[in-house]
Amino acid sequence: MKDRRNEPLRAKRSLGQNFLTSPDVSRRIAAGLDLSGGEYVLEIGPGRGALTRWLAESHPKRLLLVEKDDELARLMTSEYPGAEVRNMDALIFPWESLAPGAGWRVAGNLPYNIASPLIWEMVSRGAGIDRAVVMVQEEVADRLAAPPGGRAYGALSAWVQSFSEVKKLFSVSPGAFRPRPKVRSAVVRFNSLQKDEKPSDPAALARLLHICFQSRRKQLKRILKNYDILRLESWSKAEGVALTERPEQLSPKAFQRLSHALFRP
Ligand code: SAM
Q1: Could you say which of 157, 197, 208, 241 has the lowest number of CB atoms within 10 Å?
Q2: From ligand 1's centre to the CA of 129, what distance in Å?
């Protein structure tokens, strides 16, 4: 197949195609994965391979590429014959199929329109993933890594931090892409927590986070007024958190314990 990497880029906005033109940014994303060779590596949205090149150079044991664009999936198949290309929507990727114990590493310059729901599913269902390093809109990066107590902290922050240790690694300006995005970007790293540190009932936690952050300015006692007040008071005492607090004050662990207190049978 013809080498099309140097042709003018016809990016599809509907697929969030902002291609990286800075080799240094691609190299730093790959470096964040700390690959030494022989790892299981998955890339979301390889596009024309700006980041794939650095991943392939580490000689992974498996290289799995998930690309929705048919044309780009074909391009990747021909450029990386050793890789497994899945021409599919990453939003329906079966995260459970990544075997625990293989220590999967995930990389991606994510399409910004799907970044938050994709990360929500990946961190909670990808038990086989040890580490992920992805680029997102900077505003989303700030929410992912936000500590409790501030405006950026919300359901997404508490959720991802319940499954992984999250760190914003570096910011990237629009000039590093073609076409240029309207907003700044940032690279975020997720190191998976140990199994026994993760929520034992993720569905209960998700339900509580949705309820609480729909009314983030209200006090807990008002938001949860229809639930068992005795359980709520006993959680409040054990946790040392007043029911007059607002959701943004609660740590991920406090949410997990509150979800058990309220929703256990
Ligand atoms: N990795 C390339 C780079 O850095 O130049 C491309 C990054 S571009 C921001 C996002 C890539 O994700 C595009 O290749 C796009 O076609 C692909 N993509 C968009 N939506 C997708 C989806 N739902 N599932 C899988 N890939 C998707």
Answers
A1: 197
A2: 20
pTM: 0.95
Residues in the chain: 265
User: Could you report the per-residue pLDDT of 133-189, keeping only the tens digit for each?
Assistant: 999 999 999 999 999 999 999 999 999 999 999 999 999 999 999 999 999 999 999
CA 240 to ligand 1 centroid distance, Å: 44
Q: What is the pLDDT of residues 111-127, one digit of tens each?
A: 999 999 999 999 999 99
Q: Whose CA is nearest to atom 17 of ligand 1?
A: 45
pLDDT tens track for 29-69: 999 999 999 999 999 999 999 999 999 999 999 999 999 99
Ligand 1 atom, smallest distance to 177 CA: 5
CATH of 202-263, one of 1.10.390.10, 1.10.8.100, 3.40.50.11190, 2.60.120.560: 1.10.8.100
For the chain, the domains span: 13-197, 202-263
Q: How far is the CA of 94 from the centre of ligand 1 (A)?
A: 18
